[in-house]
Amino acid sequence: MGSTEEDLSKLNSHHDPASPTQPLLSNPTSSSPIEEPTSIVPQDPDSTQFLQISYNYGPRPFKDLPFLILFAFLVLCTFGFGIFSIFNRNTKYGDVSSYTYNSSSSSCVESSSFSLSGPNLDFGFVLFSSSSSGFFKVLIWTLVITLILTAPICFLLLLLLKHYTKQIVYVSLPFFVIMPIFLDVYWFVACTVSSSCSDAFPLVYRILVLVFVLLVVGVIIWIFIANWQRIELTVHIIGVASDALSRNLVLFLVLPLLTIGLLLYYAPIVVFLVFARLNGKIVARESDGEYTCVWKQDSWVPAYYTLAILTMLWSLTAMVEAQVYLISGTIAQWYFCKDDSAPKRSIRSSLRNAFGPSSGTVCLSGLLICVVRVVRAAVDSARQEAPGIVNLVLRCCVNAFLSAIDFLNKFTINFAAITGEAYCASARMTYELLRRNLLSAVFVETVSTRLLGGIVFVLSAVYAIVVWAIVKSVSSLGVDSYLVAVFAWLLLIVVLAFFVHVLDNVIDTVYICYAIDRDKGDVHKQDVHEVYVHLPISRSLRSSFSSRTLSV
């Protein structure tokens, strides 16, 4: 990665000498002539347990089975009632308009006359399609080409981040400032020239928006300057993670296949939801003394909708956690392998563990994430319905609690993929591991994610501009070319966001593996230790550790 040794030497000059560079639970390299009595050294009741942390290559027992059984029960209920809805459907659902109320029988009967509105609808659709065929043709071809180009773009970005991390980050940083300023000035000038926009936004409001965006850009510049040393460290962390991911490229084949498998699993559930609407009957309803024939669903249909939607949400979060488990297990096997190459069948063993012994742990982790998302959505909807200071305080407390669950869950599933422990045991052991080694996980999670997100945004924006220029030159869409560029930008940014998600999980996994090495006094990847040793330690944990040492 270019001048890696020079950059690491700069980081060494700024490194806190008080932070421990030796593993806290290992013996120092040079022994003291006068040995301390072992009786005065406090021992944690389970410290010997944590000294044995490493990747579990052997057979793993099944963990968190109740949650796997609960998930399987919900899936079976969803498919069972879905199949029942298909065979129990009422074929008269689409004929409600042909039924009229019969006062003599007090029921709805089928009328002989009915409306022929179908051909008009089809004709309108044909007219709509023919008038927009040029736009849709260009849009479809653009999206197809973009989807094909996403694979080489991701591979090229990975290689650039592996070999030229510093250059990529430093080239992208100015665009974080240039692009907002360009868009702000462009909007100001375009709105001033346009009579409709200038009438809607007076000059005073336009100047306020212009100044506000410039102030935000100034804050961004100040953040860059204040955290420049942390950015340099994050550059090396991203480079190490890119190198680890480049040695396990099979992940980019398996992870999309898992996503496709989830979509195929969703397909019958969506069909069941469609057929569930057909379960009911045509009844008469009184309104202002007049009777009309309406469709009434069976009483179990809303409950089935709730069951199916919750099952789909849980399945989605469980699949996301299974992918994190797969990434963590694969990268951990590469990390603890003595040679620099990836071990054989690492993907296969991680898949077997994720969907085998640790499937209950994956389901529990997905359930927690699902609950967090549902509660957060409920809190956001309650904000609009019940505004007030009490609601604001409760919302802040709930969001803080949910963020803590998100943070704890993220590193728990990484640890479970390495050791095969149950969810609660992994959460406790992860906390103890980081606490004993005074490591701060917040730095790894926030700074690298924001830098990678900024790089993805810049690359996607540049690609959208290129697409707009090409579409503008080869077609006569006019203003619609902007819409084509926006769709291409959205597609590329979604794919690159998935790439960032994978790389983030690699960073977290390497971080946990480094903590295990530090705890055992071992070094499996020297280049990783040379970078991660410069991570800031947790100040609160260091103060508590110092006070405990002084009291001893």
UniProtKB/TrEMBL annotation:
<feature type="transmembrane region" description="Helical">
    <location>
        <begin position="204"/>
        <end position="228"/>
    </location>
</feature>
<feature type="transmembrane region" description="Helical">
    <location>
        <begin position="249"/>
        <end position="275"/>
    </location>
</feature>
<keyword id="KW-1133">Transmembrane helix</keyword>
<feature type="compositionally biased region" description="Low complexity">
    <location>
        <begin position="28"/>
        <end position="42"/>
    </location>
</feature>
<keyword id="KW-0472">Membrane</keyword>
<protein>
    <recommendedName>
        <fullName>Choline transporter-like protein</fullName>
    </recommendedName>
</protein>
<dbReference type="GO" id="GO:0022857">
    <property type="term" value="F:transmembrane transporter activity"/>
</dbReference>
<feature type="compositionally biased region" description="Basic and acidic residues">
    <location>
        <begin position="7"/>
        <end position="17"/>
    </location>
</feature>
<feature type="transmembrane region" description="Helical">
    <location>
        <begin position="451"/>
        <end position="471"/>
    </location>
</feature>
<dbReference type="InterPro" id="IPR007603">
    <property type="entry name" value="Choline_transptr-like"/>
</dbReference>
<feature type="transmembrane region" description="Helical">
    <location>
        <begin position="138"/>
        <end position="161"/>
    </location>
</feature>
<keyword id="KW-0812">Transmembrane</keyword>
<feature type="transmembrane region" description="Helical">
    <location>
        <begin position="483"/>
        <end position="503"/>
    </location>
</feature>
<feature type="transmembrane region" description="Helical">
    <location>
        <begin position="168"/>
        <end position="189"/>
    </location>
</feature>
<dbReference type="GO" id="GO:0005886">
    <property type="term" value="C:plasma membrane"/>
</dbReference>
<feature type="region of interest" description="Disordered">
    <location>
        <begin position="1"/>
        <end position="45"/>
    </location>
</feature>
<feature type="transmembrane region" description="Helical">
    <location>
        <begin position="65"/>
        <end position="87"/>
    </location>
</feature>
<dbReference type="Pfam" id="PF04515">
    <property type="entry name" value="Choline_transpo"/>
</dbReference>
<comment type="similarity">
    <text>Belongs to the CTL (choline transporter-like) family.</text>
</comment>
<comment type="function">
    <text>Choline transporter.</text>
</comment>
<feature type="transmembrane region" description="Helical">
    <location>
        <begin position="304"/>
        <end position="326"/>
    </location>
</feature>
